[in-house]
């Protein structure tokens, strides 16, 4: 999607097998603001981050993908009864 190789990745099976997921949703605008303030990455890494990965378009696509994935997981969990 972004064309960037990501090393810090959580495997899909880990997400799919979770009993509980908590999504911290933030708009691309707010995340970019936090990035620029140095609250996510050190300021000396920002140029690389903004030029490669943290573009508005990428953040917006990733946010949409996250929300859809969580919604799909919730629907799947509702369809299959929990085994105690």
3D architecture notes:
The chain is an all-alpha fold and 84 residues long. It has a domain at 41-78. The chain has 4 helices and no strands. The protein has helices at residues 12-16, 28-36, 46-52, 56-79. Helix 2 (28-36) packs across helix 4 (56-79). The longest helix has 24 residues, at 56-79. The N and C termini lie far apart (38 Å). Pfam families: KdpD.
Please supply descriptive tags for the structure shown above:
84 residues; mainly alpha; 4 helices; 54% helix; 0% strand; elongated; Sig_transdc_His_kinase_KdpD_N; KdpD; kinase; P-loop_NTPase
Question: What is the element layout, followed by pairings?
Answer:
Layout: H1 12-16, H2 28-36, H3 46-52, H4 56-79
Helix pairs in contact: 2-4
Instruction: Tell how many strands the DSSP assignment holds.
Output: 0
Helix proportion range: 40-55%
CA-to-CA gap between the ends?
38 Å
Strand content: under 5%
Taken from the alpha-carbon principal axes, the silhouette is elongated
Q: Kindly name the structural category.
A: mainly alpha
Order of helices and strands: HHHH
Count of helices? Answer: 4
From the alpha carbons, calculate the radius of gyration and give it in angstroms.
16 Å
Question: Uncertain spans, ≥5 residues at pLDDT below 50?
Answer: none
Biggest sheet features: none
Keywords: Kinase, Transferase, Two-component regulatory system
Protein name: KdpD
GO molecular function, one term: phosphorelay sensor kinase activity
EC number: 2.7.13.3
């Amino acid at each position: 999607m972004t064309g960037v190789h990501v090393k810090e990745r959580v495997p899909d099976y880990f997400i799919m097998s979770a009993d509980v997921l908590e999504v911290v949703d933030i708009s691309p605008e707010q995340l970019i603001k936090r990035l620029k303030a140095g609250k996510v990455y050190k300021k000396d890494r920002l140029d690389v981050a903004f030029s490669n990965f943290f573009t508005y378009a990428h953040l917006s696509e990733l946010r949409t993908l996250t929300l859809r994935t969580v919604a799909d997981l919730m629907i799947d969990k509702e369809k299959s009864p929990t085994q105690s």
